[in-house]
Amino acid sequence: MSTDAQQASTVLDDVRRGEILADVAALRDSFDAGTTRPLEARLAQLDALAAGLRAERPRLLKALELDLGKSRTESLITELGVVSQEIAHMRKNLRAWLRPERFGPGLMLAPASGQIRREPLGTTLIIAPWNYPVNLALAPLIGAIAGGNTAILKPSEVAPATSAALARLVRTHLDPAWVRVVEGAVEETTLLLEQRYDLIFYTGNGTVGRIVARAAAEHLTPTVLELGGKSPVFVDAGMDLETVARRIVWGKFTNAGQTCVAPDYLMAERSTLDALVPHLKDAVAAMYGRDPRRSRDYGRMVNQKHFDRVLALIDDDKAVIGGTSAADRAERYLPPTILDGVDWDDPVMGEEIFGPVLPLLAVDGPDEAIARINGGEKPLTAYVFSPRPEIEEQFIAETSSGSLAFGHTLAHLASQTMPFGGVGESGIGKYHGRASLEVFTHAKPVVKKPLRPDTLRLVTPPYRGAKRAL
Ligand code: NAD
Fold first, then answer.
1. CA 212 to ligand 1 center in whole angstroms
2. Structural domain boundaries of the chain?
3. Domain 14-227+428-443, CATH class in plain words
4. d(C-alpha 202, C-alpha 315), whole Å
5. Pocket-testing residue among 162, 203, 231, 305, ligand 1, by greatest number of atoms within 8 A of Cβ
6. pTM (2 d.p.)
7. Ligand 1 mean position to 313 CA, how many Å?
8. Domain 232-418 of CATH type 3.40.309.10
């Protein structure tokens, strides 16, 4: 651990330190006592979480509006709705997914039987980010509960109203023997990371991801890192550009672009870009009106620091929609902005944008788009709109990304049947639905061999003469 981190952890007063350590110890004790193992108890906690979500709905919606200017409908779809569906899916399938999976252990052991038993890992730590602060805190928690684990949940301090609402939800509706919330920022997280867990599930940026991984290495704790990156879009010639534009605009400007799988930048041939721009303009106007600031459906940057960061990426000379003149720092309002004629070395291409700015870049076809993707870090998602199946196959075969989506943006994030996660710089590990149960359990092979017939005598010394038999 760095000296900075050590100093940070000493900033907490002794009382707060004691509370946090007591929370971790209490969860370890209840795990050791077997509280979280019975299937019925897990189902009951999932039910309690679903009930809590319903009961706390008004508070959560208000908090999301305060923190991110999220509209009620957007919050219901992308936050509370996704979590409720994830609970329902887990609830429905958990019993079957926990059934032992049989396998044949092979010739060396025959006769023998084998089964995979999914066992809980223990006490887990879930560190959540601010951009979908309900969804990205509770979706992993569903996996932790379903897997029979206890969990410390650390919401993001960057979305403080939602952090408080989540703390209340957990305190009021869940069993403190299973789940406890620790609110706070770097100091609290640093102290939490000094403790030993059986899994750390972190969602956020790669810099902190590395801090988490380093701390986890100290105790050989497995980690899931759900990170970000620049998710590209390629639009091939010959598509229905009106629909394509609508799908891209929705994916980009939902939550004011603060989505880990938002299309980060868009590549197409020059002629396709020229044809696409009017449709992009129409789609923005259709979704958010002529003045998106007045739209109830258009969100805000989470804070002024992020507002300033994204504002600095906008080159007004290249803006075909939006730009800095309509931006309002006090309101944290950045208009939907589309930049055309962007160069690969422009600042906007130097980092994950994570805001409502879409750069358009001309390429000479799919081959260049693939080469550009492969020239950068592996993205969380890549999006391709192409009428040609062979081009889709080429993207599957020649690019690497956490997931690859044809014909839409963003919506796959809500799928309970699709494992979600990154690869390389965009993350380690997958979750959602069955993948959540898998990542929050150990798949333990159990092998059983009868004493008779005593076939293992064949492989015990002395080996003299064995050659002949082999
Ligand atoms: P953030 O600032 O809220 O940080 C995430 C968490 O890390 C918070 O709980 C925070 O308290 C903690 N943290 C911050 N600094 C720390 C430190 N020095 N030591 C220990 N803990 C610390 O969120 P963020 O990182 O700004 O989130 C945005 C990033 O997350 C983007 O890169 C985005 O793409 C990525 N993201 C990924 C996914 C995914 O599912 N893969 C989802 C959402 C966001």
1. 11
2. 14-227+428-443, 232-418
3. alpha beta
4. 33
5. 203
6. 0.95
7. 20
8. yes
